[in-house]
Structure formats: C-alpha cells, structure tokens
Specification:
Helix content is about 65%, strand content about 10%. It is an alpha+beta fold. It starts with a helix and ends with a helix. This is histidine kinase. It is a multi-pass membrane protein.
C-alpha cells in the first residue's frame, strides 16, 4: 500500500508542479501579448512619422520596462528595428555561464552599438541562419491577422524563450506588420525553483503523513483482522480457547467481540457434550460384559446347530 501511496503522491506533486509552471508561462505570454497590442498604436505613429530613431529608442524603453527583446518587422519580412542587437564585431562566447538575459541587461552596451548597423547585421544573420524559415512561418501567421504564442528554443539567443507575436497596421503601406517579443526563460528559473522546492516539501510532508496514516490504519484494522483470522483458523481445527484482544469501541471491536462470543459458546458446548459422553459411557460400559455373558451360550448353540446341518448335507 505504501508503494501505491508514494507513487500517487509523487505523481500528484509532479502534476501540480507542471500545472503551476504552465499557468505561469501562459500568464506571461498573455502579458507580453497585451503589451504588444498596446505598443502597436505607438509604433504605427512613429512609422507614419518616419521617425526610426525615436522608434528605436521607444522599443528599447519598452524592452527595459517589460524585460523582453523586441523585433519589429515590416510587411515584407524585413527587420525594421530591434532592441539590444549584438555588435557583430564582438565575439559572443556561447560557453559563458552568464545567460543572454544578463548580457542584454547591461545597458551600457547600447551606447557602444550603432543601432541601425546592428539591426542590418541582425537581419542578415537571421536570413543566413536556420531560423529564417521558422521566422517566416511565424510572420505569415501574424500577417494573416493572427497572433503567435509559444515556448521555443531560439537559435539566435541560444536558449529557451517565450515568443509572442502580434500584428500592427503599417499606416504607410496599409498592410500588416509584425511585432515579435522574446523573453528568456532563464529569468524565471529562480521563481520556478522556489515553486518546485515548495511543492517537493509539501510532497514529502504528504508522504510522511501517509506513512503515519497507514501505520495507524494497520494498528486499528489490519492487525486485528489478522488476529481474527488466526482465531477463526484455530476454531476450525477444534481449538475454541483462543480469543481476540479487544481494543476500542469501533466496528472492528464489535466484530472481535462477536467472534469471542462464538468461541466461548462453542467451547461451552463442546465441554458440555464431552461430559455427557463420559457419563453415558459410564452407564453403558458395565452392561456390555453382562450382555455378552447372556448371549454367548445362544451364539455357541447356534453355531453348533449350523455345523451339524452342514455335516448332514
């Protein structure tokens, strides 16, 4: 039983952890989607004014506010602006233990980057990489008027991210553009780690409580039933002297009392029947030799007569 209980508790704990993480990610996706929809009106204004410098600063400010990388595409799959683009003249060590989130949050880096050149280089690198087809597929869904929410491995940032895409209307061309917002999952690891620790602690407490509960039930139900089984087996073999130890006043105790009462009645009946047999034997046994003495001459005479008849024949 404990194995089953442990499996159930572990399964429930793992399920709760998964549901909490999934709920948290869905809430975050909805927040990013809502923020992207709020951004669309401002982006449409800057595009109409053809103010790319202010547009880049606005995207960077939103990035700092929500902690998500923002890529802005036109209606032709072209990258118009991006927040915190890499300087292609600087090497990025993939083996660095620092996450891409910590790298991007170094605001001093932005002063060393030329935003326009960085955006062009980012677009070129994206088109030359394996992510081009994936980005194009996502943009097609957004251009069709839909939205995109998913958790994927980002080949550019080289880590798992929450990716949200929302459309915006280009006031110049009258066509739909796309806003992609990416937030690394590494920023949630600490929170989720605390959640997992809490759930694991609750699971351990549940297992300990289950151990106590099973032990208590064993003392109250299983052990008395085992003793009743032994008493019933002894009664079946003719031993009516064994009794069940009664503890408590519950249904199990009532059953034990009934079994003890049955054993006592059977023991009394057998004792009474044994005394009657002894008394009957004491009366009948002295009469047996006397009967034999009276019947023996008759038996001998009968055998003698039978023998004479057989000889004459």
């Amino acid at each position: 039983y404990m194995t089953v209980i442990v499996i159930i508790v572990v399964g429930i704990t793992a399920g709760i952890s998964y549901l909490i993480a999934d709920y948290f990610f869905r809430i975050k996706e909805q927040e990013l989607s809502q923020k992207g929809q709020e951004m669309s009106e401002t982006i449409e204004y800057f595009v109409r004014m053809n103010d790319h410098s202010t547009l880049s600063r606005y995207i960077l400010a939103v990035d700092r506010l929500v902690g998500a990388r923002i890529w802005l595409f036109d209606d032709q799959y072209g990258l118009m602006a991006a927040s915190y683009v890499f300087d292609q003249n600087q090497e990025h060590d993939n083996n660095n233990d620092e996450s891409i989130l910590d790298f991007f949050r170094d605001h001093e880096l932005n002063n060393k980057l030329r935003v326009a050149d960085g955006t062009d280089q980012l677009e070129h690198a994206m088109k030359q990489s394996d992510m081009a087809d994936k980005v194009k597929s996502i943009l097609n869904d957004i251009y069709a008027g839909g939205s995109f929410q998913s958790q994927i491995y980002h080949p550019y940032y080289k880590e798992h991210v929450i990716l949200v895409g929302v459309p915006y209307m280009n006031p110049v061309t009258g066509k739909t553009g796309a806003i992609l917002m990416t937030e690394p999952l590494s920023g949630f690891e600490r929170f989720l780690r605390n959640v997992y620790i809490y759930v694991i602690i609750v699971g351990i407490i549940a297992i300990i409580f289950s151990l106590f509960l099973v032990r208590r039930l064993s003392q109250i139900i299983i052990m008395p039933v085992e003793k009743m089984k032994d008493v019933a087996t002894a009664m079946a073999s003719g031993n009516y002297s064994k009794r069940v130890e009664i503890m408590g006043e519950d249904e199990i105790a009532e059953l034990g009392k009934a079994l003890n009462s049955l054993g006592a009645d059977l023991d009394a009946y057998v004792a009474k029947n044994g005394a009657y047999r002894k008394k009957s034997a004491g009366i009948l046994w002295p009469m047996f030799p006397m009967s034999c003495v009276h019947l023996l001459p008759l038996f001998v005479a009968t055998m003698k007569l039978s023998t004479m008849v057989w000889l004459q024949i």
